[in-house]
Amino acid sequence: MIVPSIDLMNGRAVQLRHGREFVLDGGDPLERLEQFAVAGEVAVVDLDAALGQGSNAALIRTMVRRAPCRVGGGVRSLDAARAWLDAGAKKVVLGTAASPELCGQLPRDRVIAAVDAERGDVVVDGWRAKTGTTVAERIAQLAPWVGGFLFTQVEHEGTMRGFNLETVRAAVAAAGEARVTAAGGITTGDEIAALDALGADAQVGMALYTDRLTLGEAVGAALASLPMWPTVVCDELGRTLGLVWSTRESLARAVNERRGIYWSRSRNALWVKGETSGNTQELLRVDLDCDRDALRFTVRQLGVGFCHRGTRSCWSADFDLGALERVIEARRDEPVPESGTARLLTDGALLGAKLREEAEELAAATSAAEAVHETADLFYMGLVALVRAGGSLTDVTAELERRHGAVSRRPMVAK
Question: How confident is the prediction for the chain on average, in pLDDT?
């Protein structure tokens, strides 16, 4: 699988060759993050912090709230690692500071150890100093304590001239259950597919920034060799909207344009969702299944819905919080006379009073039936407040996910 990389210096996305030679300015990191997040996790590396010449921490804290990120560069202590996990980083990447003692105090599946090597010899201090330790030795030392390794072949980093696949194969064997992400010199879809066949991911920067490799090609590189793949389409809350088909051509366009673009078997042609109906889709993420023979598109569905029959889903729609949110949004956009929801949306004082009332009643509930009734009231009032303020259930889910991933626990006390 592909892991796009954003290296940061002075608040900009940059690309270096061999970790030292400046090659290009990749632009606004937040724009790059929006582009790359379609592929899943994005590697964010603070080069300034790694080199001891500053920090991009404030920028990265914004980035981890916008997309799934694995954060590295200058993370040298347990407190720093915990702080990034608390901030919302999916994983933290530790370099020379990685040790069994430090890693053992963190959730194993969220720790990646960086192993940088030049011609098989592990290097440190900005890749300037050799350690005399082999890649296999370093991996064996840390494998019981981390969930993954970022293995960079320094001699190939930023060159776009390929890499040593057999060296990665040896690293995968040494890592055991820990997942290896290879970096340095990866340029083509075939190379990503070869790494995936080994059980390794590909971290890619330079090839994406220079358009030697498109993100669409990279995302589809590991797919099984089939003429087309079934594609399950879901909304931001995971509700299935329909089943369609993708080809390499449609997938590449969908990813590169970040739109719902598929393959129509009836017309034997590309199908841009909403091009005629107006029910367009913004593509948020693409996932491959475990066997690499099916896709999942997560989209933001616009218009009346996905189905050609004018419904949101091709299956009968069950009522859920997402449906209630859409009802409230409709009352906001087109107020209905005498609608209680419309009144709550425009009367902040009334809404505040109702929220306090429902919260108190839920706190006083003593039976399951009472708790269910009052929770429903509070959910409704909470959603009205959320829509009124311009937030969404997707935002709330993301916030809860970040809190769930925090490793530092605060005492639960009343204010």
Answer: 94
Pick the catalytic residue: 7, 48, 201, 235? 7
Give the active site residue among 46, 116, 201, 235: 116
* CA atoms of 123 and 399, how far apart (whole Å): 38
Rounded Cα–Cα distance for residues 275 and 166 (Å)? 46
**Catalytic residue at 116?**
yes
* Interacting residues of 127 by C-beta distance below 8 A, sequence separation 6+: 18, 19, 20, 116, 118, 154
Q: What's domain 229-301's superfamily in CATH?
A: Phosphoribosyl-AMP cyclohydrolase (3.10.20.810)
Predicted TM-score of the model (pTM): 0.91
Give every CB contact of residue 1 below 8 A, 6+ residues apart in sequence.
39, 40, 192, 196, 201, 202, 222, 288
**pLDDT-derived band of residue 156, with 50, 70 and 90 as boundaries?**
confident
Residues with Cβ < 8 Å from 351, sequence gap 6 or more?
Answer: 344, 345, 381, 384, 385, 388
Q: Identity (one letter) of the amino acid at 364?
A: A
Q: In the annotation, is 7 catalytic?
A: yes
pLDDT computed for residue 127 by the predictor: 65
Token pair in block for residue 35:
């582009």
Contact residues for 237 (Cβ-Cβ < 8 A; gap 6+)? 320, 321, 322, 393, 394, 397
Side chain identity, residue 380: Y
Q: Would you place residue 59 in the very low, low, confident or very high pLDDT band (cuts 50, 70, 90)? A: very high
- pLDDT, tens only, 355-398: 999 999 999 999 999 999 999 999 999 999 999 999 999 999 99
Contact 175, 139 (CB under 8 A): yes
Q: Is 90 exceeded by the pLDDT of residue 281?
A: yes
CATH 1.10.287.1080 domain range(s) in the chain: 321-405
| Residue 41 DSSP label | -
Residue where the block lists tokens 């009032």: 381
* Per-residue pLDDT tens over the stretch 231-259: 999 999 999 999 999 999 999 999 999 99
Does the domain formed by 2-220 have CATH 3.30.559.30?
A: no
Report helix, strand or coil for 214.
Answer: coil
Instruction: Say what the pLDDT of residue 126 is.
Output: 67
Which residues of the chain are in CATH 3.20.20.70 domains? 2-220
Instruction: Find the mean pLDDT for residues 19-32.
Output: 92
Residue that the structure tokens 């429902």 belong to:
358
Report the alpha-carbon distance of residue 364 to residue 386 in Å, rounded: 24
CATH says 321-405 is which class? mainly alpha
